[in-house]
Prior knowledge:
about 10% helix
Amino acid sequence: MKVRRGKWSIPLLALLPLAAGAQPEIQRPPGTPQAVGAVHTVRQIPEACVRIEGRFTGQADAPYAMQPVRTDARCQPRAALLDFARVRPGEDGWRLNDRIRIPAAACPGQQAVVEVWRRPVEQPLVRDGQGQVRVYLGEARQQADAGKLASLPAFAVRMTLQGTPCR
């Protein structure tokens, strides 16, 4: 079996080391079969203020297209959405968060597989005398000016196609 990614065809065995033993944190059944051209939400990542939209294109060279869409212009991201090419799954604390399977309605043997990887950041929360976590603007600005802001949690998304393409 081969996996199509863009114009290249990758043997499925080449991806096994990447996914070997990687069980997603979120378990879910395959999604509803999607028709060609129907735009659908693959996954929402509220921490990054992003919704991942996808659609089957019906084109042989790129049968599935996926793009991030900002959820709201006023949303303040608490996590970053990074390019998957910069991510080393299984290293640097990256964890497989979710594996979403989207079958093609017009081609039952083909499905898009979207993997969402996340890198959590342990941030110690300091509570005041009332048990509340408080962030003060002046202190936050001083930390930002000194370059001492804590890193943000991050997400990265990878899409592959599995199965036999229909003609």
